[in-house]
Each structure stands twice: as structure tokens, then as C-alpha cells.
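Section 4.2 – Deliverable D4.2 (structural model, holo form)

The reporting period included a commitment to supply a predicted holo structure for the target in complex with dioxothiomolybdenum(VI) ion. Inputs used:
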Amino acid sequence: MNFPHDSAVRHVSGESVYVDDILVNSQLLIGRVVYSKHAHAEIKSVDIEAAKNLKGVHAVLTYKDIPGQNQMGPVIHDEVCLAADLVECVGQAIVLIAAETEEIAIEAERLVKIEFTPLDAVLDIRTAISKNMLLGPVRTMQRGDAEAVLKSAPYTITGELETGAQEHWYLETQTCLCIPGEQQEITAYSSTQHPSETQAIIAEVLGISKNEVVVETRRMGGAFGGKETQANWTAAWSALLCQATKRPVKIRLFRDDDQIMTGKRHPFLINYEVGFNAEGQILAMKVSQHSNGGCATDLSLAILERAMLHADNCYFIPDIHVTGKAHKTNLPSNTAFRGFGGPQGIAAMETIIDRIARDLKKDAAEIRRINFYGIDSNNVTHYGQTVELNRLPVLYDKIMQSSDYFNRRKLINKFNSENEFFKKGIAFTPVKFGISFTTSFLNQAGALVNIYKDGTILVNHGGTEMGQGLNTKILQIASAELGVSHSKIKVNATNTSKVPNTSATAASAGTDLNGMAVKNAIDILKGRITELIADEFTRHSPAEPSLKANIRIENDLIYDAENPGRKMPFDEAMNLCHFNQISLSSTGFYRTPDISWDKQAGWGKPFNYFAFGVCVSEVLVDTLTGFYKILRTDILHDAGDPINHGIDKGQVEGAYIQGLGWCTTEEVKWNEKGHLLNHSPDTYKIPSIQDIPEDFRVELLEGIPNPNAVRKSKAVGEPPFMHAFATWLAIKDAISAVGNHRFEPQFKIPATNELVLLSIEQIRSKMKQSVEIPVQ
Ligand code: MTE
Ligand code: MOS
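Output (C-alpha cells):
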């Protein structure tokens, strides 16, 4: 159903309250972080005296002033809160300042004197590989004997794919406001995807216990994975300043600082070797994935694991061997970003298929189709999970028809033969994306539903709203499960004192997990309510008792289905419950059933289910400038029975566009000293309105409910990110057309205009050479 996003009106009217909008009294201090200008260096000395003495400065803190642990590593404790004697990336925090105004804080920053002894820095993945500084153990997932099958395969291809970083570019930068309470108590209003972890980190650095810290998150102005762990930093820093000054302290990072200091999507280098037959059927594949983790572990190991779990994308590969290494470098610790490693893994697989097609002079869509996981056979992944409810064949048939793919392919070939300087390209790509946290215990959620005497309802749950519409969907779930209208329900700000020990809102599982927890709480409440109301109806007509099982709640009315004359408005009934001493508040809980994952063996059923989607995209490339334009993109995405059709469609569109940015224009550049060169929107190019396809057709697969999630819906936050690969490979197809598809274009992520032009030039020079030495 369609129902507007809970913030739709409030966003445009400016009434939505973000952390920076929270009204605080005149005691408020502004926090500022002094960070390293070196990628790797020893700290010789830190002089904060002059800064401390500046009028209007209330605190200047170094690691020595941390009362608890100097640590904020979320999974592995390898991330100091403030650098002591070593910095490992540009942007690493060293000194904290709290001052009465932003201007005074900046002035104080200028007075802080830090002396460094620079050390050698490792920045890029190739140097990192040569140094072999790993953040965790080498991981392997395998089935069969890829090595042996590769040796006997009729055709083989080897190669590598490089994928770049990506800046999250949430509109609201990392922000936290801390307010001191009684004794050690502290309340943090944090723009975090993970309030429970933010609470834990604050408690750890302050040396206090979790029951003294409350973290509240009303909404984030975007997160995209960038606030899954790294929102903890601003929270920890503002909490330290708050505790030191006993005044409210807010840190809102400036855009440039945010971009310089925080981690990005992990750049990957992926080496592959694939064996296939003359039809293009893949027989064996060896893939080794290397990720650039930055200077600390953060979520790198889980991200690498997801990349490895998506090395197959949609294809059954009998003999397969996948290894993964996360490398330590001197960049800010790279972190979660929509897709969480999945996009990197899938990009390599789609590159492989694209290359097989060019090698065999076949259409890549056909190669994709014949390698799809089967329905009854060839349906087990390289990590042992059966691909159930496989929607790939139906999606393929539908999009081939609706996009008129094969006919357009012919028209494009004709266009390309008639045009020397403009070339068109087209590509089809599918996606299969596993839904669940691969760290199995994280697949749990809690809720607290309160019904008040007037019949209104306040829903608390552990998920966070970042624009994806979780709170709107939760409201709709509560309304449908309880049988009362939307207008009677409010979804509360996420608060660690209402629902404790929650998981991050991530892995696209926010609605699946929290929606189920809310349903559980409502089921409990409905049990109590229907029992009381059955007794009440019976009291009025003892001869013909009402049975609890027959009591229904619908459209704000409670009635006996066997005897519809017996009814009562919902709000009246709630008042009655209260007078009869029935508790109208309940917690709810959910854990994903039936998943298991043996990390060591690389085998099991890590996912509750898979999300699927397909995309066809067509582009036009100006071969003289490298400029490209997206002529048309068709997406068909499987979101089960959507809880909110409009929101899900918006997620599909937004994810594709964000993926497009990563695949095309968003090039994160560091200089040889590890300084980020493009740390503002004038140099870092996220997609704008001109970059969306001229003809953009997004549809959700209709009428195929998902039995594995709340109200038959399906997770949709990340899977459609991968649809951008159709556009990316369409650009490659157009480049390939320059050489009549005889040469493999040089290609990577991002395919910037410069890369496209270079790649075309390279093909042109190969064509000149091949006049003398014909191919084959
Ligand atoms: N959509 C918006 N508007 N803003 C965001 O920050 N984050 C994405 C996705 N969609 C994001 C978004 C990411 S990375 C994830 S994991 C999911 O939303 C998380 O929310 P969900 O689990 O409720 O889908
Ligand atoms: Mo999303 S990258 O799982 O926060």
C-alpha cells in the first residue's frame, strides 16, 4: 500500500528535528576535534596550554584525560579514541576542544601545537598486498576442485578488477549532542544507526556503566552504512567533553572534516581465473579478493565475508574457490556502505561474465541466463546454502520482454556500424543478495508497545530511521497487526532506555527484524485485550458467552466475529482494560529462525532468504571526449509484497543512483601523503539530477509474496544498489564497440569520463596495430 513517509511533510516544511535542531539552553558548548595531518607518524609532543587559556574555552582534552578506556573499536579493540603517541591516518583525532562558540573553538584549534615524526605510509591496495599487513585471518570458501577443473577447461580467462572507494555523502554529517544528568548520567542525541553500540562506547570511554547512558536517535539525515560504527566517534568525543565540563556539548563535523576523517566504502582488488565451455557455461572459478581496510578493523572482516558470499552473484559454479584478505593501510578505517562488500564481490562476477561473452562473441545476457542458479538442481551456493524461491528466471523473462532487449541490441549494433564517433552500449545484469547479518546472533530485535487509556499507541523499537522509511513501515505494520488506524499510532524516537541491546539498523533487515518484534508485542497485547473483552461481552449475555478466539480488532472497533452486534470502540475498550487492571504495555522480541553459519568452514545457511532484481541499461558514449549519457534504464525488482510500495520504489531508485555514482563519477582521490584531495561537493561528484537516465522505468515484481518476512515483504535497502552494474557494463559495451568487440576494454570502478576516453584510445591503438597483425 502507499502511505507517505512519516517525515514527508515535515522534511519539506523544515519541522523534522535533527540532532542539530534540538533546542538546548545557553550552557551549550561546541565541540571540535583536532586531527592528524599525517597518514602515519609518531607524535613527539602536544601542547594545549595556549588553547586552554583562550577565553571561552572550557575544555581541551587529550588521551590522558580519558577516564575510561581509550578505545572505540566496535568489534575488535584496535581503534583508539584519541591518539596517544602514534597516528595511523590523516584525520585521526588527537585533541578535543569545547568552547562557547564555533569561532572560539576554531581559534583554540589554531593554538594547539603538535609535533610529529613522519613514518612511511601504505595507502593503496597493491602496496598493501606486497607488505601483507592483514587485519584478520585469510578467509576461504570453496566447493570441489577449482584448480583441477581450470586446468582441463576448454576456455579460461584470467584478470583483475579494481573497485574504488565511495564517500557516503549523507546530507547530515556526523553529529552528536550530549547532555549531562545527575551524577554520572549522560544522554546522547546521536545520529547513529546503532544506538546500543553508541551507548556502549560512551560508557567505555567515560568509565561508567551502560545504565548511566541513554542514547536517543529520532532520525538521521542519511547514513548509508557510514553511521553504523563511525557515529560512535562523535558520540564518544562529545561525551568526553560533556563529562569534563558538565555542560551540554555538541559536535557536528564540518562537511570537509567529515569527509577527511571518516572511512569510506572499501576499495577492492580482485584477481580471478575462470574456466568455461563453448556455450559459455562456467565450469570453475578461482577468485581472490583483497580489500583496503584502512587503519583499523572496524567492520572490514564482515564486509570481506559478504563480498566472498557474493562472489557467485546469481550463478551456479560447480567448482569454486574464493579467498579473501583485508589489508591494513594508512587511510581512515573503511566501513559499511550500502551493500557491505556485496557490490565489490558481484562486480567481479559480472566482469567475468562480460568477458566470457566477448571471448565467445555471444550476447552477455544469454551467458548470464544459462549460468543462473537452477530451480530444482544446480541450486546450492559455494557456501552450502540452497537458493530457494529463486525469482531469477521469471525476472529475466519479464525484463527481456519489457525492455525489448534483443531487438534493441540489434538496433544498437546497427547504430554503431553507422556512427564512428558516437557508440551505444547495452547491458543486462541480475542481482541476488542474501538477507541477514552474517554474524548470526545479530539477527535479533526488540520492541516496546504502549497503549494509552485514550486508545492511542506509542511504538518503540530498536531500529533507526535514516530516510529509508523504517518508521513509516513499522507504523503500517502496527496498524495492520493491531487493527487500528494510522492516526492513532506514533513511532517513538529510538531510545536505548526503551529497547535495550539492539543490533545496528543495517543489512537491509531493519523492517524484517523490528517489524517482527513489534508484531510480537502486539500479539501479546491482543491476547490480553481479547480475553478481557470476551469476558466483558459474556458478562452482558451470560447465556451465550463470547469466546476469546472470536474477538477481532478492525478499523478501530473490537467485536465478536460470531456475534457482530457485540462491539466496542477501541479507545473505550482500552479504558475498560485499564479499569480491569490489564497491562497495556508489552515488550516484543524476534530472532531470525533457521540460520546457521560456520565462519571457519565457510559453510552453512547464513541468510534467511535472498532478494532478487534485474536491470537493463542503455548508454551513449561520445568517443572523442569520453562523455556518456544514460539513455534508458529498466529495473524490475523483487520486494515481495511491499509494506509500502512508494517507499520501496524510492529505495530501488535511490540505490541504483547511488550505485551509479560509485560506478561512474565518484572517484575518491588521495595524494601520495594520504591527504584526501576531494573533500567537498565541488570536487567529489555524486550523481545529480542530470545524471539520472533520460528514460527511467522502475517496477516492483508484483504478486510474489515472500513467506520469510513480516507481512510477506522483502528487504529492499541494499540489493538494488547492484542494478548500477547494467549501466556500468553498458558503458563498457559501448567502448568495446569502438573495436568492434574484438578487444577487451580496460575498465574498472569508477568508469570516469577520463577512464572511458583512455580505454577508447587504447582500443584505437590496438586496432591500428592489428592492421598488420590481424586478431585470431
Ligand atoms: N535509504 C536512505 N534514504 N538513507 C539511508 O541512509 N541506508 C541504506 C538503505 N537505504 C539508507 C537508505 C542502507 S546501507 C541500509 S543497510 C538500509 O537502508 C537500512 O535500513 P533497512 O534495514 O530498514 O532497510
Ligand atoms: Mo547498510 S551498509 O548495512 O548500513
